[in-house]
Amino acid sequence: xxxxxxxxxxxxxxxxxxxxxxxxxxxxxxxxxxxxxxxxxxxxxxxxxxxxxxxxxxxxxxxxxxxxxxxxxxxxxxxxxxxxxxxxxxxxxxxxxxxxxxxxxxxxxxxxxxxxxxxxxxxxxxxxxxxxxxxxxxxxxxxxxxxxxxxxxxxxxxxxxxxxxxx
Length: 167
What we know:
Elements: E1 2-4, E2 7-9, E3 13-16, H1 41-50, E4 54-60, H2 62-65, H3 71-87, E5 94-98, H4 102-105, H5 116-125, E6 133-136, H6 139-147, E7 152-155
Parallel strand pairs: 3-4, 3-6, 4-5, 6-7
Antiparallel strand pairs: 1-2
C-alpha cells in the first residue's frame, strides 16, 4: 500500500488470466514443457509495473477438479512461471486460482465468471478496483471483472494482443 501525504492509497492492479493471456492455451496446461509464453506478455507486465500497478493472476484450474493434475502440479508450474517473470524483472504479486468445477466439486464462489478471486485479492491487497485493469481471453473473465467493478476489462483472443494494449 502506498502513502501520499499521510493518506493510505489503494493499489492499482493489472489482473491477468493465465491460459490464453500469459501462456498459449493448449488445454489443461500443467507441465513446464507444455507452457509457452505469449509474445509480449513480459513487456506488457513490465510497462504496467513501471506505472505502479501490482500484477495478480486469477485463473480457473478445472483440471484439478477433473483429476488431470494435482494442486501440487499446479503450484510447481506456478513457481516456475513466477521465476521466469522474476528473471525479466517483473514481479507477480500473487496468483489466485479456483481448483473447482461445478460438475465435479459443485458450485463455488471463486470460479469465474463469479468475482470471488478478484474480491479476495481486493481485500488482501487494498485494491482500487475502479482504477485497475483486467485482461482475459474468455467472456467469463470479463464478466468476473465487471461484477467486481474493475474499471477496464479487456477481452483478447488469438494469443496476439499484447502490442495493442497500452497503459
